[in-house]
Design brief:
The protein has 243 residues and is an alpha+beta fold. It has 2 domains: 70 residues, Rossmann fold (3-Layer(aba) Sandwich); 109 residues, Formyl transferase, C-terminal domain (Methionyl-tRNA Fmet Formyltransferase, Chain A, domain 2), CATH 3.10.25.10. The protein contains 7 helices and 10 strands. Strands 4, 5, 6, 7, 8, 9 and 10 form a 7-stranded antiparallel β-sheet that branches. It has a 3-stranded antiparallel β-sheet with strand order 1-2-3. A hairpin with an 8-residue loop joins strand 1 and strand 2. One of its GO terms (molecular function) is methionyl-tRNA formyltransferase activity. It comes from Tetrabaena socialis. Keywords: Protein biosynthesis, Transferase.
């Protein structure tokens, strides 16, 4: 199969790191296994043409370095497969809030991250499974300390906390410390200030700031809450049991 060099990260996104990947070319777009990958820092003053020239040189050298493995028949064994859909699904039962926050950051843009929830009608008790994309999160921190947010995708506005709301990191810490998740059987997803608080492993709570419900555009967590209209959001039983 053919090979291609893929460039990762651009100055427009404000990333501090970019890189190149040498991947096999298959019929599906960006679906071939990755043979090699190398990261490089992005200096604050570098321009796109300067970065592109540097990445072209790096990618060429990386491809030449790996060609002996390909010609020797070892390329397929050394290549790493592309991420699967299940790998982009957040497992709240086994992952702590810091771990899942880092996964959201790492998978931002593509392939993205999602979570499985249950919508429960408060009047009838009827349950409906729902899969929600988790676009932007905030790293949990000690009560009252600011948390670091995962980067919002290019072109999307990051929700800002209003005056009088809990400081970043405070809402989730308070919810866990006060036993709010435990009072709801460690199943209910809470909302506080600008964040959706999802119970995670180790008694932690992931602060979700931006989501994308099915068939809708990305929105702030508070707007998502307003659209629930008499419904509660729960974790599936298998995930809530270990959270």
């Amino acid at each position: 199969r053919k090979h291609k060099v893929v460039f990762l990260g651009t100055p427009e996104a404000g990333v501090a790191e970019s890189g190149v990947s040498v991947a096999y070319t298959v019929l599906a777009c960006d679906a071939g296994p990755v043979l090699a990958q190398q990261r490089v820092p992005v200096e604050p003053g570098v321009t796109a043409p300067e970065l592109l020239e540097r990445l072209f040189a790096l990618g060429t050298a990386l491809l030449l370095q790996r060609l002996p493995d390909v010609f020797g028949g070892r390329g397929q064994q050394l290549a790493a497969p592309q991420l699967t859909r299940e790998e982009s699904m957040l497992d709240f039962a086994s992952g702590s809030a810091p771990e899942l926050h880092n996964r959201v950051r790492a998978f931002a843009g593509w392939p993205g991250t999602s979570g499985r929830f249950l919508l429960v009608d408060e009047a009838s008790g009827a349950q409906e499974p729902i899969e929600v994309k988790i676009v932007r999160t905030r790293a949990p921190g000690p009560r009252g300390s600011p948390g670091a947010s995962s980067p919002a995708p290019s072109g999307s506005a990051a929700p800002a906390p209003s005056s009088g709301e809990a400081a970043p990191g405070e809402a989730a810490a308070a919810a866990v410390a006060d036993g709010a998740a435990a009072a709801a059987g460690a199943r209910e997803v809470l909302f506080s200030g600008d964040a959706m608080l999802v119970p995670c492993a180790g008694g932690t709570a992931l602060e979700v700031l931006q989501v994308q419900p099915p068939t809708k555009k990305a929105m702030a967590a508070r707007d998502f809450k307003n659209g629930l209209r008499g419904k509660r959001l729960l974790l599936p039983v298998q995930e809530a049991a270990s959270a």
